[in-house]
Design goal:
Radius of gyration: 20 Å
Helix content: 25-40%
Order of helices and strands: EEEEEHEEHEHHEEHEHEEH
Bound molecules: ligand 3JN
Number of helices: 7
Strand content: 15-25%
Structural class: alpha/beta
Distance between the termini: 25 Å
Shape: globular
Number of strands: 13
Length: 306
Amino acid sequence: MLASSRSAGKKINFMGKEYTVEETTENSFEGVDIALFAGGKASKVFAPAAVKAGAVCIDNSSTFRMDPEVPLVVPEVNPQAIKRHKGIIANPNCSTIIMVMALKPLYDLSKIKRIVVSTYQAVSGAGREGMDELKNQLDALANGKEIEPKILPVSSLDKHYQIASNLLPQIDIFMDNLYTKEEMKMIDETRKIMEDDAMKITATTVRVPVYRSHAESVNVEFFDEVSVESARAALEKFDGVIVRDNPSEMIYPQPLETSGKDDVEVGRIRKDFSVEHGLNFWVCGDQIRKGAALNALQIAEYLIRQ
Ligand code: 3JN
């Protein structure tokens, strides 16, 4: 296990065995077949060193995602892209992975004309600090104490807002086009993974006072007719997706239920009557598992099988 000098020497227990974290250097990758990276700055500096030493680098940051030379992969969706790698394979953004898991089986029924997505993203997307912030604020609310927001929406900015009992329609910084960086990641990465630059997408990403699992409301307009029944059947057959959709029994995906689980859950599948060929659905997934770590491991497993 490798990290910066700050964490060197730390002991981490993994599957019953204790490992000592070492400081990463350019020489850390001798004899390494697959290097799993999880940090933006480190990726930029050390991914090339890992590749030079003969390793395949699976990178969870956005550093290389839109590089045309780097495959951006969700193994259930575009495994064919893995073969084109030149040493680095990028793991997509969490909200993007969760959405494309539901889009791919539908896209195989009909090409998609346009997507409108709104996300409901858990505070753990902002790391441990985000989770601590929600917990401290909920405690303060319960005890009638004053709340002093310190982390959200973006910890590195000066201005912060309360998340407990609130919603923040800002994830990451704003771009010149008035979208946030998270919204642009969803738009750009979805097109790249689905290999369809003509597909129109618009996104609004929102932080919600939930600890874990992102949820998304997705509206899809298809070129051809896609019935609710055929959408449901296609989603049910798709590896990594569970359909949880029974309105008469009040069954639908919820972040509390998808937390700690590998599969992405889809429900509320219904017609969008306002357009010719439209469907609405709701998707929930653990953004730390399928939205990040699990997806990276599945890419590694694919490489090993090859
Ligand atoms: O806020 C969230 O819910 C998701 C955050 C993702 C994130 C946070 C910091 C840096 C990313 C990402 O994976 O897109 C990155 C990054 O790698 O750019």
